[in-house]
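Regression test attached.
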Amino acid sequence: MEALDVATVSRAQLVDITAAVAALVGRLALRSGAVHVFVPHTTAGVTINENADPSVKSDLLMALEALIPPGLAFTHSEGNSDAHLRASLIGSSVTVPVRDGILQLGTWQGIYFAEFDGPRRRRVYVTALPGAAG
Amino acid sequence: MEALDVATVSRAQLVDITAAVAALVGRLALRSGAVHVFVPHTTAGVTINENADPSVKSDLLMALEALIPPGLAFTHSEGNSDAHLRASLIGSSVTVPVRDGILQLGTWQGIYFAEFDGPRRRRVYVTALPGAAG
Amino acid sequence: MEALDVATVSRAQLVDITAAVAALVGRLALRSGAVHVFVPHTTAGVTINENADPSVKSDLLMALEALIPPGLAFTHSEGNSDAHLRASLIGSSVTVPVRDGILQLGTWQGIYFAEFDGPRRRRVYVTALPGAAG
């Protein structure tokens, strides 16, 4: 297992960590199988989405904001229950196939750290899951 | 890693790929561990849900449609930001345990390719993740 | 693969299964890699969220309730289409890194079985995915 550091600058932000994950696949010497990318926080997550037009990122954050009806009577005293919900909806990990040491992402896919209660300093754990020998 | 081709005929559609994934578990000679099913697209995903009553599929698609409030000011020029959001909510992969070469799905579970911006021709990557020897 | 039994007492409920999963990591003799936690049901799921303030759990369930607009014309005759939707949004499995035989969860993270159509008796499958030898 290796770890990445991610610094966010806004309350909600998507940070492209694709290149950093690809570099760790090399360091972990994973040739074939899958790589697991895990966020050890409860108000952030990780997702795969489009890496081309940056408006997809802002649209995604706006819609995740609009998804939760206003005026809910949250009781958690830290006032970030909406961020906990978004973290569970987006998920705490993604797993990506690896072949010949290369992430098998689609043409338009990038791996995004998803901050929902920033700005903060965050960590991401990256684990190699080797495939069958064959 | 093996790949499946999936053709969709509607904008939003759930396609049962359980039998195809089970066949690839055999071809990959996976006896024990888990199989990883990955969608390399940004406006589609994969989910596990009921395989018995087909109305569950149509209800799921209708509710995913209704989830996103109308009138959001999306800026992505391709006009499919709603599909990108649904892809991130549903997720780009599922992982299913395998024992004795058999998918350990529950009685009512099927694996569904989830199209949100079809009709299109799509791919699905299937990777064997062997478990411990014991 | 090992299995856990979980009994729920409400229609919607989050049950902390972190300690039970950690115990199975020991029984599976997994030292390094990841553990896969899978729910073989279609109206329940599993998620990772905060294990400290219990109000996060109740806020999460309340918001998942409020997410789905009232008055949708669901057609599934069992009347639990909302539970099927929540299961697909939360997801049927989580995967957590393991190092030196210990779950690499963040300080505030717990693993929660997520019941959406209880009370019921449920199962959870736990599978060891060994990492690279190195």
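Expected vs. actual: identical. The CA atoms of residues 10 and 119 of chain C lie 5 Å apart.
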